[in-house]
Design goal:
Helix content is about 40%, strand content about 10%. It has about 210 residues and is an alpha/beta fold. Helix 6 links the parallel strand 4 and strand 5.
Length: about 210
């Protein structure tokens, strides 16, 4: 999780991974902690990360309580400054990496191979090991420089997935829009979920859903 706005996207993805029975290695950048505090009022502390994570996952995109009773025993938190952490090595067993949300600074760092923190280092390792890397960029408008960096990530094998909600799934609440993006991230990672209504080739399906 980088410092871009969009912490509800990250929460929805983590909940989706846990619901699917996936283990999660969590890296929250220093900038992401500031964004999380700004958008939710929740601090993220290394010494109390599990309590802070549960409080965060128990909030919906509108800031109200969200029904979450997931088991956090399959979540392992790594400090962003810990460059000796497990995910910093290609020998550490993982299926892939999801950067949600991805800031333009994070995109630049990964595209250039800077590895200035654990988030960027793990992304570089993911690419060199030819593992899936999904980058949910959350910024608008995009400069030419960032677009070139995103093309570089695509050419390196990453999936560039803009945090761009769709409306055909019949969204009636902000959480529905967030869950659509989170669902597309999980789709790209091959993780099953039920976060949004899939397109079935029937026009007007979203209106019918909303009327129900």
């Amino acid at each position: 999780m980088s410092g871009a706005s969009g912490t509800p996207y990250a929460a929805a993805v983590v909940r989706g991974l846990l619901e699917a029975g996936e283990a999660v290695d969590l890296v929250v950048s220093r900038a992401a902690r500031l964004t999380l505090l700004d958008e939710t009022g929740i601090g993220f502390r290394d010494a109390h990360w599990r309590d802070d994570l549960r409080e965060w996952l128990s909030r919906g995109a509108d800031g109200k309580p969200f029904p979450f009773e997931g088991d956090l025993s399959d979540v392992r938190h790594w400090a962003a400054g810990d460059l000796a952490a497990g995910p910093s090595s290609g020998s550490y067993p993982v299926k892939g990496m999801l950067i949600v949300p991805a800031s333009t600074a994070c995109v630049a760092g990964v595209a250039l191979g800077l590895s200035k923190d654990l988030l960027q280092r793990t992304a570089s390792v993911t690419l060199k090991e030819r593992r899936p890397l999904i980058v949910a960029v959350r910024e608008t408008p995009l400069s030419g420089q960032t677009l070139r960096q995103l093309v570089a990530l695509d050419e390196a094998g990453a999936v560039v997935l803009p945090a761009s909600p769709a409306f055909y799934a019949g969204a009636t609440h902000i959480q529905d829009l967030v869950d659509f993006v989170a669902g597309r991230v999980l789709d790209a990672a091959g993780v099953p979920h039920r976060l949004y209504r899939r397109w079935k080739g029937e026009l007007g399906g979203s209106r019918t859903l909303g009327e129900g």
